[in-house]
Design goal:
The chain is built from one helix and eight strands. With 184 residues, the chain is mostly beta strands. The protein has a single domain, classed as Porin, CATH 2.40.160.20.
Amino acid sequence: MKKLFTLFSVFICSSAFAAGNPMFAENTDNSISLHFAQGTGSGTLLKLVDPFLWEIEPMTMLMAQYSQPMEIFRLPSRMNLSYVQNFAYHHTHGLSFMAIGISWDVAIINWHGFYFGIGIGPYMRDSKDEYVESRLVFGEKVFLGKNISDRWRAELFTQHFSNGDFTEINHGFNYTGLAINYSF
């Protein structure tokens, strides 16, 4: 098992260094992204990676994001400033919210124009609700991206917002969607 883990680690690290930062075009220091996502139910972080647990919820998330490139432990990364708007419909308990947050995404695998990564960051919401009893939430993300052209990228992503059990009510929000990214 140790040999398998070592080989996997070497593969991930070597593939991450294959060519610059895959989330940005060459010689660019900024990007903007638009994220469109559908709610996939409240609950656990496991819903990020197991589509069989998704329950389509009457919620739609839109997110505008500004990013700059960086490195985390020598892996290509980006630092993000995000504006999130959740639209809930057919709910009587006011699940719509707005949030602003910062996050960090790391591209773990970079291979032939595709990249795979994870992200995390704190967000401040404008309201409390029956899913999460606090305004402070943390967003965890898993994404798969593709370089469409020199400056454009597309990403499939799943994202989870919850407060890490800081309060008694913490069901969380889960989303799956598509992001379009432009580097400049």
